[in-house]
Amino acid sequence: MKILAFDTSAKVASVALAEDGKLVSEFYLDSGFTHSETVLPMAKAALDAARITPADVDLFAVNCGPGSFTGLRIGIAAVKALGMSLDKPCAAVSTLEALANNLLGFSGIICAAMDARCSQVYTAFFAGNGETVARLCEDRAISTDELFNDIKKYVAQTGEKVWLVGDGANLCLKKFGEEFVKTAPQQLLLGHAFGTCIAAKRLFEKGETVSAGELVPNYLRLAQAEREKLQKEGKL
Questions:
Q1: Distance (Å, rounded) from C-alpha 83 to C-alpha 79?
Q2: Per-residue pLDDT tens for 48-92?
Q3: What DSSP letter does each residue of 82-115 carry, written as one string?
Q4: 155: which residues sit within 8 A by CB, 6+ positions away?
Q5: Is 200 exposed, middle or buried (0-12, 13-18, 19+ CB in 10 A)?
Q6: Residues 74, 195, 17, CA angle at the centre, nearest 5°?
Q7: 37: which residues sit within 8 A by CB, 6+ positions away?
Q8: Does the CA dihedral 22-28-195-5 come out positive or negative?
């Protein structure tokens, strides 16, 4: 089975093609260009490198959140267009689960953390056993103080530092210190669409794919403009 996956959830953009769980081609870009400029050329390059066309892809996948509101919409729009035009199934992947997949082969508690601004993070915990990662909690948007309390509990339970992965990792390391956490290697720290492929394959095997029309972003919290409006109205 061939899976083409997109990650536009944060500053880095990535597109990967996998076949039967093996990475075939992957393009990763942290250039500062907007995802709307780069993601479709990257997808074409990934397919061209493997000498296949979009019609040869069995499943299209995308990180649907949490993450940048604009970034998520760009990736989802691209996959919607491909899925609808080719009548192919799609996989709506958690950005945090895709990040945790960067640490396949590592053992210990993994904390996927994305900087949500305003001293908050998008986060979820996973357990790595050296071969797979298993989810320990749902995706959440919480304060860094709440996250620190959770991390200390896991450290107390396991006696080992917690792995940090994602663009919130360095923020957390600076705040929490090296007594409790350690960061993923630099080359694995940020999003790679192959992690999205891995999560998408699991969803396919569980029969949890969706149609292109069913793809929607999972923001986890309201946009800043919406939050400010509710605050002014005294509803938040």
A1: 6
A2: 999 999 999 999 999 999 999 999 999 999 999 999 999 999 999
A3: HHHHHT--EEEEEHHHHHHGGGTT-EEEEEEEEE
A4: 161, 162, 180
A5: buried
A6: 70
A7: none
A8: negative
